[in-house]
């Protein structure tokens, strides 16, 4: 995917933070200093220069300078992104620069390295600079010259406390390169204001300062320092940017997974030099792989703790909740992760079970915490879709990994959750009652009584529990009776075209909710078979395609009225939720509606990729396709479900 000029691609590994790289080879929005929810938006002092021609290999080197300056830049730069890498084709001078962080399925160590690699191909003398960002304040910052297996500049802060999120160090270097530690890049301009000093990018000047082994920040309020490394190349060379932030701030006392393997940023660079870890992901050149790979960006908003627990922000700016489940959030993201790191997913899904109280499943693991869960997220109602979601996640993890001991360990909790849900059925129709008070993932929309969304999820979860009971040889007879009763209640919502949203006594909401059969999607994916008759499923999916799908030229609308117009009763109903849209598209594909499912998915991806591919929202405005709702949303990777469905569905 070509990078547009209005967004950058985040480059970083699991749990380490990231740096955004823009189409002109400038950077911003760094979160490598344990600052996932407070990115450093403006980064000065980063440059890549060909010293042999005095040419900056960037389109706008003065991007973040208060006072602009003029330097020589290439004739053209074309950036192509496929997370977690971006490749820059530079013309006049001619260089190819690939920037990436390693990602190796089933190798958690190499996929969680605090490392960005600059692979540079061409001929010249390449210099790279990077600022010292250690410590939350400038004072105390110091740069050291490092010579060894990897030469370069080590940047740290002698006054930062371990409670400071930015307590740690950064290293920039390469094998056999030269280094300059005293780069004072933020200086007064000639007349007024401050500007970046780029005059240092002169081979003679750099050589003059090459003998300095240590440089610390002077007592000037606006001074900023960085390091520079350079090397003559004729062919190909790797430069390494590594970091090691081992502080213990109050909101993140867990430490990083990389602390198990390394003692410093230099250790990481030496490991990268020896190991040469790569990006080992599907490189197929088609729109669906482009969508899946680039939607993996959301993994840069993850924690991977020293003890091996993975958590992803629901969003890093507003909610700050970790591993939110329900409505295809962590539950959709973890489908892809099951392919790459199954043990990690099982560990976190089982971790949820530690916080189940009398059958109630939490909404998440906490607000910037993995130990202080929130239980409904909408006071004062407990949610009806969290329990079914967790049961389906547990059964899925068993089904995809064949780990019988995992299923057995979690069975009693599954039973506890099912029994809690059954108690929520006050009208004895077999389906947990919706109370209308934002008691599910549609937490801005009222649903009452018997809901097709809740009923479908509950029925599939009940089926998964019954199947688990069979596998483990436990009695399940009473649950089959409830299953049959619930099925009849769900079918009472059928109007001949689709299952209506909900009914309660003599009240009905006859809108067509696109997630009315989300449980059937789960059952299909998990090989549990249909709960509802096949012809009704296909008829409802066809109606959703023809009405919810056609109501907006940008995306699959959450809800339409019986006349096919967009349901504007709430912001949630009149919007599109990509995580739900892609799940429904994959359900269509699995049910033989291959062209229809691909059309729905591709339309939504085109809206996303042209506007906000690395900041996918929780909601899309169905009327104009604009960003709507929570940013950088956890469910971004649900497009993986479409790729999975295409791969595993026989083409007819």
From TrEMBL:
All residue ranges annotated as the Glycosyl-hydrolase family 116 N-terminal domain in the record: 8-175
Annotated GO biological process: carbohydrate metabolic process
Pfam families in alphabetical order: DUF608, Glyco_hydr_116N
Domain Glycosyl-hydrolase family 116 catalytic region, chain residue ranges per copy: 308-641
Top-level lineage group: Archaea
GO molecular function: beta-glucosidase activity
UniProt xrefs under InterPro entries: 6-hairpin_glycosidase_sf, 6hp_glycosidase-like_sf, GH116_catalytic, GH116_N, Non-lysos_glucosylceramidase
PANTHER family, A to Z: BILE ACID BETA-GLUCOSIDASE-RELATED, NON-LYSOSOMAL GLUCOSYLCERAMIDASE
Protein name: Glycosyl-hydrolase family 116 catalytic region domain-containing protein
Organism: Acidianus hospitalis (strain W1)
Top-level taxonomy: Archaea, Thermoproteota, Thermoprotei, Sulfolobales, Sulfolobaceae
